[in-house]
């Protein structure tokens, strides 16, 4: 296919932005006053006129370059919790030109709708690629609909890759007590747990009604490098939703997760086991008893 004909404006703009032409301008800018200083053949008026013309050409070229090229704000990794991890994520986002990527220079990034699951995958993959320590993910999920989580195949695939690379994932499903006593919810939740366990994920549950407001948050802590906070939960197709990523003060989110996860016999995995011990026999026998389920949830 023949190259489309370029108009005169485009040819002039390309000429002004050419490194060779700008080098010639620079040489003339130095040579003209030098020649005037060494000899008397060039008048001061000529020198001033040439220099003025060169300055105008260079300014015009600079303005044009700012119009046709994207200027990225330079990010400083020294203030980030993990500089190597931050640089890896930043460079990937800048290559993809994700929405509002300029915010990452401050160690914070906000993404919307369909960008959220894609960024989640990027954060996990960057953990694998950067070899940041610890190779660990702590995920708290407000599980209002367990079926939604089974549909995010790329996210589940990168979970598997992280574990196969030697990493660990602790995932906490935060559920309302009223949901835990429903047969359809219990069945979907335990199927979801089975799937995550098959990937190598350590699972636990917490009853949302018993958590403080600052604990009932959907977030994922990636090593000590970043935290993804889901501020507006997405729907099944992620046509809506809003999340933020922070690369600073990650440890406080780690502490928040650990405060919910718990320790010893009261830790989230043991709470899940107690719930399973009551729910699975009723589900397997197709004899769900709401009152028994409610009693089991009350004891969690």
Descriptive account of the structure:
The protein has 300 residues and is of the alpha/beta class. Helices cover 54% and strands 14% of the residues. Strands 1-7-6-5-2-3-4 form a 7-stranded mixed beta sheet, with helices on both faces. Helix 2 packs antiparallel against helix 3 (44-68), helix 5 runs parallel beside helix 7 (153-164) and helix 11 packs antiparallel against helix 12 (290-299). The termini are far apart.
List keywords for this structure.
300 residues, alpha/beta, seven-stranded mixed beta sheet, 12 helices, rod-shaped
Major β-sheet annotation: 7 strands, mixed
Distance between the termini: 70 Å
**SSE pattern:** HHHHEHEHHEHHEEEEHHH
Strand content: 5-15%
Q: For the CA atoms, what is the radius of gyration?
A: 29 Å
* Average predicted confidence as pLDDT: 80
Main structural class:
alpha/beta
Oligomer: single chain
């Amino acid at each position: 296919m023949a190259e489309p004909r370029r108009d005169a404006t485009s040819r002039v703009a390309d000429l002004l932005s050419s490194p060779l032409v700008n080098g010639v301008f620079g040489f003339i800018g130095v040579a003209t006053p030098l020649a005037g200083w060494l000899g008397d053949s060039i008048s001061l008026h000529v020198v001033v006129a040439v220099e003025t013309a060169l300055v105008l050409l260079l300014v015009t070229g600079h303005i044009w370059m700012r119009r046709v090229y994207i200027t990225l704000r330079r990010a400083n990794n020294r203030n980030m919790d993990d500089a190597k991890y931050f640089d890896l994520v930043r460079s990937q986002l800048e290559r993809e030109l994700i929405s509002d990527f300029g915010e990452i220079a401050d160690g914070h990034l906000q993404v919307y709708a369909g960008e959220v699951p894609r960024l989640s995958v990027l954060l996990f993959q960057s953990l694998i690629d950067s070899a940041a320590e610890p190779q660990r993910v702590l995920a708290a999920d407000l599980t209002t609909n367990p079926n939604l989580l089974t549909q995010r195949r790329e996210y589940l695939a990168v979970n598997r890759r992280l574990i196969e690379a030697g990493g660990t994932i602790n995932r906490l499903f935060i559920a309302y007590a009223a949901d835990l006593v429903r047969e359809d919810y219990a069945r979907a939740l335990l199927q979801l747990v089975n799937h995550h366990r098959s990937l190598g994920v350590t699972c636990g549950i917490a009853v949302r009604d018993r958590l403080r407001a600052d604990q009932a948050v959907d977030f994922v802590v990636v090593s000590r490098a970043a935290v993804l906070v889901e501020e507006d939960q997405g729907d099944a197709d992620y046509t809506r939703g809003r999340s933020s990523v922070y690369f600073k003060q990650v440890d406080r989110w780690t502490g928040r997760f650990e405060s919910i996860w718990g320790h010893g016999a009261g830790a989230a995995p043991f709470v899940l086991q107690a719930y399973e011990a009551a729910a699975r026999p009723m589900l397997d026998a197709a004899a769900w008893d709401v009152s028994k389920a409610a009693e089991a949830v009350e004891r969690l």
